[in-house]
Amino acid sequence: MSAAQPNRLPRLERYLSAPRHNPTALHLILAAQLRRLRLAAGLSPIAAGDALQCSDSKISRLERGEVQLKERDVAVLLRLYGVGAEDAAEFLALVRRSNQSGWWHQFDDVLPKWFDKFIGLQEAASVIRTYEVLLVPGLLQTPQYARAVAAADRRPTEEQAVAARRAELRLARQELLEYPDPPKLWVVLEEGVLHRQVADRQVMREQLQYLARAALRPHIQVQIIPFTAPQCITSGFPITHLRFDPPELPEIVYLEHVRDAVYLDKADETEQYRSILDGLLNAAECPDSSLQRIQDAADRYC
């Protein structure tokens, strides 16, 4: 009888090739891989918990990416799951990388904890679908528009420097659209976004002109829901839906509120919001008509 084959890992190098280090996505991928390895080894969460002297519920949280991956614990699990020495060494090296800070942590002074995860997920997404009610989305804002939005959102006790840092973070996020293999960005805007004057007329004109140019890029699609559109199936708040190429990552729906956010990853939840976004797409004008509407709005600020 031949010796049992070790539990093999898929090649993970492609997860390290992003232009900027993204520990959020890497952490979730590794957590999902631990679940796959456990199932392949035919072991229950209870057996894995016994090896780590912890509860099976902790193993479940670990496999969902809800707790930090500790190198020592992961090494124990990899041995339990029959992973060979070479693959285990590669996996542990990735665990160390997943515990490093992402590029956005240089903005920790102005970065809300609930927004941290979103930046990492957005960086890793292959498709970003977003619906906005009041503002041009952050990924498509000009510097002047971003500063005006940040200043308007500034709390009374905050200094202008804080608002400037927030605007700087917003613009730094836009670099993902310049990656060699950028995500597909699909944006649906209520027509009111084009007419809501959040800055002076010149800033608004330049913002809408920039939005029109962005809509011509092959990986960006912008569509406008006109005032005359029938009532849509939405609650009137922004929605962002993220889809990923690695099958290890579930789809994510991000709902941002005033001072916090909600992340949804259960299939029934994401399906509901995907259906809402599909309805919004049907209510929106086609890309060409939407582009003309954006250009007309820009001209009115001349």
Explain what this protein looks like in three dimensions.
The chain folds into two domains: 13-98, Orthogonal Bundle (434 Repressor (Amino-terminal Domain)), CATH 1.10.260.40; 110-299, Endonuclease, Chain A (2-Layer Sandwich). It has twelve helices and six strands. The chain has helices at 23-40, 45-52, 56-63, 71-80, 85-98, 113-124, 143-152, 160-173, 192-195, 201-215, 267-283, 287-299, and strands spanning 127-132, 184-190, 220-225, 239-243, 252-256, 261-264. The chain has a six-stranded mixed beta sheet with strand order 3-2-1-4-5-6, with helices on both faces. A hairpin with an 8-residue loop joins strand 4 and strand 5. It starts with 22 loop residues before the first helix and ends with a helix.
Q: Characteristics of this structure?
A:
alpha/beta; 434 Repressor (Amino-terminal Domain); Endonuclease, Chain A; 2 domains; 12 helices
Percent of residues in beta strands: 5-15%
Give the low-confidence spans.
none
Q: Give the rounded overall mean pLDDT.
A: 88
Classified by CATH, the class of the largest domain is Alpha Beta
Q: Structural class, from secondary structure content?
A: alpha/beta
CATH architectural type of the largest domain: 2-Layer Sandwich
What's the helical proportion of residues? 40-55%
How far from one another are the termini? 81 Å
Q: Give the assembly state of these chains.
A: single chain
Run of helices and strands? HHHHHHEHHEHHEEEEHH
